[in-house]
Amino acid sequence: MIPKIIHQIWEGRTEYLGDAYKLLGETWKEHHPDWKYEFWDESRIVDFIYDYYPEMIDIYFGYQYNVQRWHVIRYLILYKIGGLYVDFDYECLESFDRYILDGSKCHFASEPEGHYRFCNKVPYINNALIITPPNHPFFINIIVHLQTTPIFYTGNKYQDVLNTTGASMLTNLYENYHNKDTVDILPAELVSPFSREEVKNYIHGKADEKILEKKLQNAIAIHYFLGSWLIKNNDYLPQKNRLSYMPISELYQIFKEYPVICTDSQMSLPNSLFFAVKTYSYDGNKFAQKALDAGCRYAVVDNPMVITNNLYILVDDVLQTLEQLAKIHHKILKTPVIGITGTCGKTTTKDLITAVLSTKYNLVSTKGSENASLGASLTLLRLKPEHTVAIIEMGACCPRMIRELARIIQPCYGIITNVGLAHLKGFGSLAGVIRSKGELYDYLRQFGGKIFIHKENTHLQSIARGLEQISYGESKDAFVSGRMISSEPCLCFNWENAGVGYTISTHMAGNYNLWNALAAIAVGLHFDIPCSEINRVISDYIPTNHRSQWKKTLRNELIIDTFNANPCSMHAALASFSTLKAKPKAVILGDMLGLGINSLQYHAEIIEALNRYGFEKILLCGDQFTAVSSIYQCFLDVEALYRYLSTNPLQGYEILIKGSNRIHLETIIHLL
């Protein structure tokens, strides 16, 4: 059965279609009011191929000409979905319903008689109008042919396109098809009454209109042959806007020639590609010319007003284009990806796994904490054929972000370090956090991936059903089991696999890092890293960027964890700190940001925890702590805290320093 769906594709956005094409497209809706209309733009096309034809990625993006891709995608859509595909230079005059009553056949349009000379075959069929049920056997022939037939380019674009993906290819396949009874060729007088030459003459006022009117008597559609790829220097073709969007496939070819990407004009490198990414406080379009002046080969922008020469490449949305480019690049290279998310410990776990796997594998991993879509895309675009694995951190502050990141990086392994109260302004509740982090599991479940999981974490186990698990934890039946020996002040622990035990002393402060270390061990063992190498690497690992760092100064010993803070990590840090034997203890805490309407409540719970622990010195920084604390010293901002410590230095303390990154507690470290 042929589904009542009309498909049309365009390499740019709808508003850049041109009025003439839009009007022609509307005629198909007008004469088929009960049919669903599907418009396929570049972004949707790329997602469709990733989801349904991953085996075609290399072929699809390997074509020399864009039009070859536009041909192939219609075959793939129709095989999977079925319906009516029609080019935008086709006009519908009446409904096709009565001409396709046999829902088991596929239907192609015949070219006008004057076009037969292209291959000296009758019928000569084109691909501008195709109607078919899904899964038709003739389309299997087409797809197999595309997958197995080598392409030889002659330099004649017109003939190369026709022979590799276009009308000549279809005609040859039809001629050799064993079951022609299942393929219906709609006669030219019905669906293509005018030749290309007649259309051209009509547009220029040179045609005999009586002859054309006679030809229209039996027609239900008209093909105007306005494909801009088809004829060189054709003065009757509508001219595309000079500032039209570059198709992603064309941009990928440029990226292959200039594979270094920068998004900061101050860090521009010669012959790199500058992507003018916009953030809430920064518009990269404004710095595109500066990047070009610094040596970038091209600047990719989404504001046409900044374009002054042909070194600018216009796209619809720079960030989305970067994401699409990354997806294409990764799909072509097929590099295995380990995706890491969680409320706490993402970056430390990523860094530990990177260190462990680097002993054997050539890999790329997320730089620092660049864990949003921009960082993930840039990481994928650093991949080269010699890389054998990628490790990508996945951050999120609201639902669906992990799902979108998973679609970009397409991991085959996943780790959720833990789930807890964080980014509640976006997630709303702990249940929202669990659902959102679980989007990584959802992706892996759909595509047959594996997970590394903390065996005793009930929140994670509740959403991990149906997934192949590689577990770590305290339980002896975990793939990797481990227990803390001490954290005075840095973590020391035992671990075991297959009945053999080991001990590791680390440079990481905080007993909560046990799970991060065990996760890295589990990944290392799964990827065949020797136990001796795993032990050496984790023992040698020194935290950076103010995460779980232990530092001895002339006056105090510090545990520095100022990169980020949320209720989950704050409670863990305080609990770990409370177990240290060192006396006296001081804590300097900054506000936990992004907690939404219940922020004061979560800060009040930290105050209650501080009351229980009874630390000798407590200093709090930020308006949230100031609002809920009446018994501890509070400072509205880090500047006030800085002034206090400058005149009241602490001496002889073990000090925990923790707060959200934007509180900037790192600026007081040198005072301690």
Automatic annotation (TrEMBL):
Cellular component, GO annotation: cytoplasm
Compartments, as annotated in UniProt: Cytoplasm
Keyword Thylakoid: no
Domain Mur ligase C-terminal: 546-659
GO BP field: cell division; cell wall organization; peptidoglycan biosynthetic process; regulation of cell shape
Catalytically driven reaction(s): D-alanyl-D-alanine + UDP-N-acetyl-alpha-D-muramoyl-L-alanyl-gamma-D-glutamyl-meso-2,6-diaminopimelate + ATP = UDP-N-acetyl-alpha-D-muramoyl-L-alanyl-gamma-D-glutamyl-meso-2,6-diaminopimeloyl-D-alanyl-D-alanine + ADP + phosphate + H(+)
Protein name from the UniProt record: UDP-N-acetylmuramoyl-tripeptide--D-alanyl-D-alanine ligase
